Amino acid sequence: MQKMKIEEKLVKTLIRQGGPSVFSWSEIYLNPYQGCYHNCVYCDGKSEHYHMHDDFGDRIFVKKNAPALFEKFLKNKSFQPVHEKEQSAIDEFFPSLKAIPNSKVLPKSIITIGGGVCDSYQQAEETVKITRKLLEIVYNYQFPLWILTKNDLVLRDIDLIKKINKETYACVNFTITLSDEKAQKIFEPRASTTSERFEAIRILRKEEIHSGVYCYPSLPFIGNTDKNIQEIYQRAKRVGAEFIYCDGLTLKPGRSKNEFMQTLRQYYPDLYPKYELLYSNNNKYGHLDQEQFEDLGLMRSLHRGYKFGYEMELDYAAKRFVPEGRLTVNLQLSELLRRIVYLKGSILYEARYEVNAFNNAAKLVENSGRDFGKLRGDEFADIPTNIQVKDVIKEFVLTGKSAYLKDLEKRTYDYLVDKYYTE
Ligand code: SF4
């Protein structure tokens, strides 16, 4: 196995801000590493698109100034640390910095440490411990936390994660794509094994920390099979995972695709020609060719996963946590509308105008300063959307429930069973 090289660097930017979605309710992303020793064969991060170094899987850069940049970002937004010991001393010298009783609570967002194109709990973290430093800042500033990893090293920090979860919210998720560990070792050679990842979820759930599974990317013919996906859902259910997000493989042309195809030729030569056809379009985002996909009689893993999830009562997305300072009903409504968009747009393929109406309403509700929870009577008529969406919003605001979503989830399940599982 190639020896890992760890190098330090200073970066100018660290924080990426993004909109919430059923994939992740997080809105702030930061990663202390560049490069990932896990070296997964399908890793999207190796693509030239991200301007990473050539030896991405062996040379790991540590963004040494990540903790300083992170704190600076929070302070620029007027947040103050809550737990730092020295804080009380600072307050004595600068009384204006003390929290003002009943002052307006600043709106917070869920922060993701890692994910994206480098794993924040990869092997380098054992000694570098920079992810832990970032977690300490999350705790100090009382922000909610989101982690996505393939390494059970995250359990080392369970003490801190528990403290964050107690005060706000912590959700630690694992990517798990292959139940069969022989196949998993081929495609994710240096990550924790599938069993270790499931065991980590079991431990986290025992400590009442939120946790789910990202069955993503699910490889055509290898991971995207009834057997593999059903097993992952069953094992996830057994260890208490709260949700599974499932989706397929993208292969961006260039280094990412070339490396993947070489491995495929070595271990799955029979599948090589099929992948050549599927990804022959060289789509710049790595999306497969839809016509080839249909000719090969394939089913999207997202659809397969939804079916098994529905049968096992495993949610297809995490329940949204509402951070401090945000309008609770607005964010809950936005979650409801985005779930509707997901089902109608990604599974039922309903008309674009229908999906857009829900999508636009989700954005409107999310960004509105008006508290939708206080709407009553005729006020629902003022919402600039169509009657159907207004009715969905009204039902949720007045009852806290959505029969519309419940029916839609059932209708989505029936549609998939009819389409793929009925002779
Ligand atoms: S863990 Fe994620 S970032 Fe790291 S190599 Fe694997 S796919 Fe890439």
Explain how this protein is built.
- This protein is α/β, with parallel strands linked by helices and 423 residues long.
- It has two domains: 308 residues, Alpha-Beta Horseshoe (pyruvate-formate lyase- activating enzyme), CATH 3.80.30.30; 93 residues, DNA polymerase beta, N-terminal domain-like (DNA polymerase, domain 1, Orthogonal Bundle), CATH 1.10.150.110.
- It has 16 helices and ten strands.
- The strands form two sheets. A seven-stranded mixed β-sheet has the order 2-3-6-7-8-9-10. Strands 1-5-4 form a three-stranded mixed β-sheet, with no helix packed on it.
- The longest helix has 20 residues.
- The chain is globular.
- The N and C termini lie far apart (48 Å).
- It binds iron/sulfur cluster.
- The site of iron/sulfur cluster (SF4) has 11 residues, from loops.
- Iron/sulfur cluster (SF4) binds next to loops.
